[in-house]
Amino acid sequence: MLVVADVERSRDWYVRVLDARVAGEYGGTSVVLELLGSWILLVTGGGPDAGKPTVTLAPPAEPDRPSAQLVFRVDDCPGLYELLSARGAEFLAAPDVRDGETRAFFRDPDGHLFEISALT
């Protein structure tokens, strides 16, 4: 589950950039996406409720200080970097080769961090 500021904007980005498929939409506040055989739930933020009385859900406040990231193992990191860049992904830097792995990092519209990684 990822908390987003604008469900429609995020849905459209995931479909356009990552080629996700919309599996369901619920009341304008959540979208279920199918991506690489897994589901990602996008939800709008919200305050505490009976089930989580002290929790407020919000998109990342400081994108440069993430507490988590999603990592996708791929066959061709440089090739996917080019494809995703052409689709509108904004990478933090060009693919970097280190310790037998090629990696590149990008963010979604709300600042959630993603990594594509390939063994070299």
Automatic annotation (TrEMBL):
It comes from the Bacteria. Residues 1-119 form the VOC domain. InterPro entries: Glyas_Bleomycin-R_OHBP_Dase (IPR029068), Glyas_Fos-R_dOase_dom (IPR004360), VOC_core (IPR037523). Transmembrane segments: none annotated. Signal peptide: none annotated. This is VOC family protein. It comes from Isoptericola sediminis. The lineage of its organism: Bacteria, Bacillati, Actinomycetota, Actinomycetes, Micrococcales.
